[in-house]
Design goal:
Blueprint lengths: L2 H17 L4 H15 L3 H10 L10 H13 L3 H8 L3 H5 L8 H11 L4 H9 L10 H18 L3 E2 H17 L5 E4 L1 H5 L3 E2 L1 E7 L4 H8 L4 E7 L3 E6 L4 E7 L4 H9 L2 H13 L2 E4 L2 E4 L6 H5 L11 H7 L15 H7 L13 E2 L13 H10 L4 E4 L14 H17 L5 E4 L2 E3 L10 H4 L6 E3 L8 H12 L6 E2 L17 H10 L3 E5 L12 H6 L4 E4 L11 H10 L13 H11 L1
Parallel strand pairs: 4-7, 10-11, 11-12, 13-14, 14-15, 15-16, 16-17
Antiparallel strand pairs: 1-3, 2-4, 5-6, 6-7, 8-9
Helix pairs in contact: 1-2, 1-7, 8-9, 21-22
């Protein structure tokens, strides 16, 4: 196990012990051990364990050293497995409901005997939860809303997680001898932030071995359908994957159809009809004449040939429309007029600004984050650890931030890395719109990301005025995760996005597209209009560990869906231009 994977186990042990009502000192020992572990570099952890010196690190007692060593060597911990087995699964599931921590869950179990979300919903509905000390009507309403959201969220999956499942499936399909072509389709291909299920399309004449392989994939928990040319399976995560097999000469039309969206497909069919044609998953054929669209498509003499989707679009007088734009939001008109933008691509990014280290709540050191950015081929990396008011995230005091600035400057002078590290902060926007640091300290930084992390229940007018006040501060370079949403976890707070965008443009402030797969905030639906008005974007991973830097791929998806070009994204520019932009905007 890696150090971060071990830290995850230690943190979960702390949560499970809290659910059991264990001694607070014992709980904190695991939590502090996890934090101490994250502050050690991976190579140093390996050395300490080999040398038997881990116990010499502050916070690591004998019991913790034994557990860390066991996890590091075997990837398993008997103590952890027994602890998990001793706790009702429903209690752990309740942790997903906003406002319910281990202490409240333990109280619900002790006073009302609640051990499942179903029982919790019933207790809220009949008012028993509101009657408990420490809860009340508002808490009960919040819990009920959280349960309702959880049920709705359970039907969707993050793009990032779905893509992790889809990649090996697609690679496996393409490796089968019977398969001529294979693609993922649906909302995954369009880069939607969340998806309902996975869709795979295959071109093959002999479908039997393809279906047999698909239903026997590792991780399949249930086969929900199986036929000659179709199959559906479900994984333990609840994610469903659907397979459809078509002849090779129908593949392009089926791929376009099953990529969607529904609105895009309707508009494309209407365009075809206006030209005397019928477009369907089976082909592009004359609209007039006897027979269904499928029957006509089976006659190769009637079907318009297409080796690629570009051929299909060309047959209808259009330039190729990238899958991300196929939402029925003007892409067909733009393709006809030759006005589709050259969308930003992963290779365009030269770095990112919003990233964290172990100085606040990150899980890798400054050196490790810098090395990871260098491995990605980036030119620069911005460090923006939390400010002092984010105490829950180990926010930096003024003294600690100045120490970090000096550490970054020394790292840059050392010449150990090709990546230049920029000094920044993710500075809390306080409830009244003031910033968390004084102007003098903010002026010592290369840039400032201003974000909301508390008082999220303010009304729309108050929240909007609060954010705009921060934007108008001359030290603020960019605004972080504008709406505060956590996909499938937390709704966005109330804010007038249009007014905030206008204020950002007026004050030459960047609004980030936070590329964390749980955020993707600002939502892609706002970007096309905002960029046309002159808003500058920064695609930031908000990385809290080295692997998190790769989340920029999810941000690129959303940026492309928002019609963004490289010119509208600040971190597509080389370092010299970025530094000039920072300087000139002030």
């Amino acid at each position: 196990m890696t150090k971060n994977e071990i830290a995850d186990v230690l943190n979960e042990i702390g949560v499970l012990l809290e659910l059991k009502g264990e001694n607070p000192f014992k709980i904190r020992a695991y939590q502090n051990g996890a934090r101490a572990l994250e502050a050690i570099e991976e190579t140093e952890l390996d050395r300490l364990i080999r040398a038997g010196e881990l116990g010499g690190i502050k916070g690591f007692g004998d019991a913790l050293v034994q557990k860390i060593t066991e996890l590091h060597a075997t990837g398993r911990l008997e103590f952890y497995e027994k602890l998990k087995a001793s706790i009702e699964p429903g209690l752990v599931e309740m942790l997903d409901i906003p406002g319910l921590g281990p202490k409240k869950i333990r109280a619900l179990q002790a006073k009302l005997g609640i051990t499942s979300i179903t029982a919790l919903a019933e207790a809220c509905t009949d008012g028993r939860v509101a009657a408990l000390d420490g809860f009340g009507e508002k808490s009960q309403e919040k819990i009920l809303a959280g349960i309702a959201h959880r049920e709705a969220y359970g039907k969707r999956h993050l793009w990032w997680e779905a893509n992790e499942t889809a990649r090996p499936i697609l690679a496996g399909l393409r490796s089968l001898p019977a398969v001529e072509r294979a693609e993922a389709a649906g909302s995954l291909r369009r880069g939607m932030e969340t998806i309902g299920d996975l869709d795979f399309l295959v071109a093959a004449e002999d479908s039997a071995p393809v279906v047999a392989w698909f239903v026997a994939m590792p991780g399949v928990q249930e086969i929900t359908a199986q036929g000659e040319t179709k199959a559906s399976v479900r994984f333990a995560s609840g994610l469903q994957a659907d397979l459809r097999i078509v002849p090779a000469d129908q593949f392009v039309f089926a791929l376009h159809h099953f990529t969607g969206s529904k609105d895009h497909n309707v508009q494309m069919r209407q365009r075809a009809l206006a030209r005397g044609l019928s477009l369907s998953e089976w082909g592009l054929v004359p609209a007039e004449g006897e027979g269904t669209a499928k029957e006509k498509a089976e006659n190769k003499a009637l079907r318009t040939p297409a080796k690629s989707e570009a051929d299909l679009f060309k047959a209808l007088g259009l330039r190729f429309i990238p899958p991300e734009l196929r939402e029925g939001l003007g892409e067909i008109e733009a393709a006809e007029a030759g006005e589709l933008p050259k969308l930003v691509e992963p290779a365009d990014l030269r770095g990112a600004f919003h990233n964290h280290t172990t100085a606040s709540d990150g899980r890798n050191t400054l050196a490790e984050m810098t090395a990871a950015a260098e491995a990605l081929g980036w030119e620069y990396l911005g460090i923006a650890d939390h400010s002092k008011s984010s105490y829950q995230a180990n926010g930096l005091s003024e003294e600690r931030l100045r120490q970090q600035i000096a550490e970054i400057q020394a790292l840059n002078r050392s010449g150990r890395h090709k990546v230049h590290v920029l000094t920044g902060t993710e500075c809390d926007i306080l409830s009244d719109g003031r910033l968390d640091y004084d102007d003098g300290l903010l002026g010592e930084l290369d840039y400032v990301v201003a974000s909301v992390h508390n008082a999220m229940t303010q009304d729309e007018a108050t929240m909007t005025a609060r954010i705009i006040r921060a934007i108008e501060h001359p030290a603020v370079t960019m605004l972080g995760h504008l709406t505060g949403r956590l996909l499938l976890r937390r709704e966005e707070y109330r804010v007038n996005v249009g007014k905030v965008i206008d204020a950002a443009i007026a004050n030459c402030v960047v609004i980030e597209l936070n590329a964390s797969p749980w955020r993707l905030d600002l939502d892609w639906r706002h970007w096309r209009k905002a960029a046309e008005k002159g808003l500058m974007c920064a695609i930031n991973p908000d990385a809290h560990e080295t692997d998190g830097l790769a989340h920029v791929a999810a941000g690129i998806n959303s940026a492309r869906k928002g019609w963004l070009t490289a010119a509208s994204v600040l971190n597509t520019r080389p370092l010299a231009q970025v530094r000039r932009w920072f300087k000139e905007r002030r």
